[in-house]
Amino acid sequence: MRRTCRTTGLALVSGPTQAYRVAKESYGPLNPQERGLLSSDRSAWYRFDTPGRTIYAAEDKKTAFLEALSWARMRAAHASYLEKTAAFFGAPVDTIRHEVQEQWHANGHMAPGWIPANWRDGRLLFELTFEPGLWVDIAHADTMHALNGALSSLLYEIDVEETLTLSEVTSGRREITTVLAAWIKDQVLDDGSYPMGIRFLSKHGATDTGSGYCWAFWLRRADIGLNDDPVAASTGVEIPENDPAYAFALSRHDIKSR
Fold first, then answer.
1. Above pLDDT 70, what percent of the chain?
2. How do residues 131-183 score in pLDDT, each as one tens digit?
3. Are 181 and 86 within one domain?
4. Number of domains present in the structure of the chain
5. What is the dihedral of CA 246, 17, 236, 231, to 10 degrees?
6. CA torsion 121→113→213→190, rounded to 10°?
7. 205 and 102 in one domain?
8. Are strands 11-14 and 2-4 parallel, antiparallel or unpaired?
């Protein structure tokens, strides 16, 4: 289902029947870090975080792992550095990569394209089930039009000098994406409800026959001290080293583990 809200102009879609989320067992799947005010430093916020609590889920397991491991992916600049260093010393790239990883690890840092084997320890793959509700399709032209109309002055103040496009919506500029999310979250839709959250496309694209959809869900009830948000989570399953979806994400991100 997709339709345009008669009140806000936002493009609305149905939510997922089920979705997947990788989270630390100690925190659980429905207990994300609470965010402060929009006036605070948002550089460490996730894309559609708002004041309060936001969780993220993906339509399939591969996309869930691609999102969860994106922070560790091999960067183009680092890959180029490894290749140039290997060529200079006449050594295999994998040898140089291992030596650099050892140096980073000795200094208490993780090199790009590497995660410790114990990353899986303490993390579980959860299946989430959402109750029926309306979600905003952030990538739809109707949503873009509504955001441009409602937030034009504010967008200009945060250096969106021309029309808001997918370039900004999918960017890493949290000063933009979090403002968009906060405005959407506060809107009352034409049926009298609030949006459940935002549907967006994974930056890493679709896998297999999927669409690459991800969802940012706002825990409105938890934010006021209640525990009846319209989402339920499974008990979670461990992530074995040979898990196909986990291995797929490591390969696509060119991440090594040991």
1. 84
2. 999 999 999 999 999 999 999 888 888 888 788 899 899 888 899 999 999 99
3. no
4. 2
5. 130
6. 90
7. no
8. antiparallel
